[in-house]
Specification:
Blueprint lengths: L1 H4 L3 H5 L6 H20 L3 H7 L7 H8 L13 H4 L8 H6 L4 H20 L28 H5 L5 H4 L2 E3 L5 E2 L14 H9 L4 E2 L1 H10 L19 E4 L6 H4 L6 E4 L3 H15 L6 E4 L5 H8 L16 E4 L1 H10 L10 E5 L1 H6 L5 H9 L48 E6 L6 H6 L6 E5 L7 H9 L9 E8 L4 H11 L5 E4 L3 H18 L10 E4 L5 H12 L5 E4 L14 E4 L6 H8 L9 E8 L3 H10 L6 E4 L3 H4 L3 H17 L1
Parallel strand pairs: 1-10, 4-9, 4-10, 5-7, 5-8, 6-7, 8-9, 11-16, 11-17, 12-14, 12-15, 13-14, 15-16
Antiparallel strand pairs: 2-3
Bound molecules: adenosine-5'-triphosphate.
Amino acid sequence: MAEKSVTSPAAHTGSKTKTKAKKRYLRRKKERRKVREKQRPNVADASKAHGADGSSESDLEDDQDVGDKDVSAPIITQQDVDPESRPPKRRKTIQVGLNVKANQELERVDEDIIMAEAEEPAPSIVHRTPTPPLPIFPLPALPNAPSKSALAIQGLDKALIDAELVEPDNVMPIPAEGTDDGGSRLSEKTRKRLHESGITELFAVQTSLLPFLLPSSNAQSQLYLSHQLIRDVCVSAPTGSGKTLAMVTQLRALIVLPTRDLVMQVRETFEVLGKGRGLKVGTATGQHSFSHEQAQLVNDLSSNLLGGSSRVDVLICTPGRLIDHLNGTPNFTLQHLRFLVIDEADRLLAQSFQDWLAQVLSATRASNTPKDFFTSQGSLNLRPDIVAPNMLPQLPYPHIPTFLTESPENSCQKMLFSATLTRDPGKIAALQLREPKYFVVQKSKDTGDENRISDVVMEKFSMPSTLQENMVVCESSQKPLMFFHLVFDQNVTDALVFTKSAESTARLVRLFNLFQKEQSHNSDKPPLVARAYSSDLPVGERKSILEQFRAQEIHILICSDLISRGIDISHVSHVVSYDAPIDMRKYVHRVGRTARAGRSGCAWTLVEEQEARYFKNMLREADHFEQVKRLRVSDKDVAALKPAYELSLRQLKDAYARS
Ligand SMILES: Nc1ncnc2c1ncn2[C@@H]1O[C@H](COP(=O)(O)OP(=O)(O)OP(=O)(O)O)[C@@H](O)[C@H]1O
């Protein structure tokens, strides 16, 4: 049997069949061992020969053939300490299943190993360093996605991240005249005027902004702050929070607003507060003829004066008309501008109007065209005393002996206001703001400041706390009926009702009047007055309608989005979005026409069934879904109004068919 012919090399080496060469070899080996033993001084020396830790490559080989080691020296190996770490013995592994021939081969290999070992000095103490465990790397895994708010502030303008966050209830009493200004920096005259108008405390936006804008000493109230950096200002505060009063102007101011109605409203505020201060306030909206406005704005239309010749200290205007005057009115100049105020800034910056902003900014800077300094006849064309200091270095007088020649800075301070201030970096960059300081009036949540800023950036707008919001989802054919239900069953009057266009405004007013006539048979209440207000009406008529509404002679003003921004009518107790707004900004401005200056107010949005998903998503994205109450109006609720409604609908159809 093959197994019988297999013998272990150990047995083989001890058998009588040893070859002569082998015997010779073993004899020599014995002799060498004896010589070595004599030479080996002691164990410690041997240890030294193998380094401090006692390990060497030969150690490993020794381990593999312990049986051949000199037993006279004490041998301590790592395996002795930890037998489990001992590598398998090569010899045993090789033995298994080998035939004789293989054995002979193996024997030769063995002998080679033994001879090699014989030449190596045998270590007596072996310290084996355990192989350090391989480092364990974590399994690959997707990193946690950054939060929405963390993403929102990525790459944001540092000025916005550093915004001053103002609590909406941070109010401050306005001290009466004759006392200290209480830190408000308001003059005695202004405090008196404010008290006379019933304003006895400053709202949050005013409490923060006024001390920032108003000089603390007379030294700072000079017209041109040549060497002092003026920081621009961006204000984001809810609707009706008093941003207009925070726009205190001194010296020369230009206030740009998106509509004529807002221009008129701001003018009224200036007239009330500026009374007795000698400030001349002008407006330019296109409401009057161009030549009429020119005569109001400048003293001299015939000559061309580099310093300009203004008749007003403050100009309140729409951007289109402003550009008309910049291009077409001689001596109309913005070089002396100290304040540039852009109200409803997000809307104005979104409109190009002949690139109005670039033209306005360039008009506040020095001209680079020296030819402007000369008349067409070649004579010098300026009165240097009235040229703005920042324009002086451009003059062909290199040696004007004045400190103003020390490269004065442009002293125009820009101020942006809106309840929905733009976060579009491209638009902000176009304004070339100088170290802008942001003020953000927003209710704090428990989540910390970073989240408040990201809320602003993510257009999660802050609403007046006194506003109650509702939505009614209905079929589109039932929408007028739902509106009548609000007015006649829920007493929604003193209301602004927003539709999507001038045309639907006119149509709804007609239907309302027809319905009310039919309904009056069933009611003894005095009729409500409803009127339409849209860009379809002439300016004069619009003005008169707004006055009647302010005087509460009109109870329901059905309007387009023309007056969805900025208009301040204190008694508006309801806002109805008859057509749902298409974006959150529009929603914020519409509902903000009520619940102003701390008063309570109610907003209603009628949402057609097919729009409901979009509208709800819009609210959800702005984190505002929970604040809007969903109301159900059943057939039973409107049953009493239905006959009059159906009749008035038929009448309207006939009326349109006839016209
Ligand atoms: N400190 C105050 N105390 C009492 N009423 C104030 C105060 N400041 C402003 N108001 C009144 O609050 C109302 C709203 O102010 P304002 O029109 O300035 O709001 P706004 O922030 O500009 O709103 P919007 O974003 O809608 O234009 C105005 O009628 C104004 O007279």
